[in-house]
């Protein structure tokens, strides 16, 4: 990526290209308190419209129970400005899903390459650790931008995205995923809603929106503050999974074997 003159980035100030370094940390159980506090402090500063400190006070597990943690660090300020965490979840059928626990990018950094670079680093580490590329990726969110980011990978004919705002319908796979990532919690399978599961209820100071008006309308119609949308990307074939890897610039692992389709 071409470099530009760097300047300190703050809320509302576009971050210069090349200003952010993506770093992969050890699993959350190995995080020391100082690193944990640094992550939270950085995100509080980078996302003033999000009650990040309250979030990580109530949901510390999104760091400490994560198996994969990827940070974006502003080089000049030496401050954390993005966070991606995930862990494996076992579905009732015995299959595994990758549960994306956090996916945040600071306000001044959202229109650069940090999102894609973070996912590339995440899956590079996952594959290096010997893990398979997941057949199912799940995320609980109130933010339509997060849905759109996942949905960007569903253009391949052998990849599907749930829910579909154009054709709401119940999904047996989504119901299974909901039981794995939110056991015992009510789930509206027709629309993808986990009612009242979000903490804190007022996480967002105002309703977030994306550039996709149909997705914004769907979220606004079905989610109240405190509700979360269960987003599920399903890639049941090796061809579909390899298409995602290619989109991230990662070569498929040699001799990769697809998981069985449901």
Number of strands: 8
- Extract low-pLDDT stretches: 1-14, 257-262
Determine the fraction of residues in helical runs and give it as a percent range.
25-40%
- Largest sheet properties: 8 strands, mixed
Task: Find the structural class using helix and strand composition.
Answer: alpha+beta
* Percent of residues in β-strands: 15-25%
Radius of gyration: 18 Å
Mean pLDDT: 89
Q: Determine the N-to-C terminus distance.
A: 40 Å
Q: How do the SSEs run, as a string of H and E?
A: EHHHEEEHEHEHEHEH
Helical stretch tally: 8
Quick one: overall form? Answer: globular
Please sum up the structure shown.
This protein has helices at 33-46, 52-58, 61-64, 114-128, 144-151, 172-181, 213-222, 238-247, and strands at 20-25, 68-74, 79-90, 96-105, 136-141, 160-162, 193-194, 228-234. With 262 residues, it is an alpha+beta fold.
Description:
It is a single chain. It is built from 8 helices and 8 strands, in the order E-H-H-H-E-E-E-H-E-H-E-H-E-H-E-H. The relative contact order is 0.15. It has 262 residues and is an alpha+beta fold. The longest helix is centred in the middle third of the chain and has 15 residues, at 114-128. The protein is globular and about 45 Å long.
Key structural traits:
262 residues; alpha+beta; eight-stranded mixed β-sheet; globular; disordered C terminus
Architecture blueprint of SSEs:
Blueprint lengths: L19 E6 L7 H14 L5 H7 L2 H4 L3 E7 L4 E12 L5 E10 L8 H15 L7 E6 L2 H8 L8 E3 L9 H10 L11 E2 L18 H10 L5 E7 L3 H10 L15
Parallel strand pairs: 4-5
Antiparallel strand pairs: 1-2, 2-3, 3-4, 5-8, 6-8, 7-8
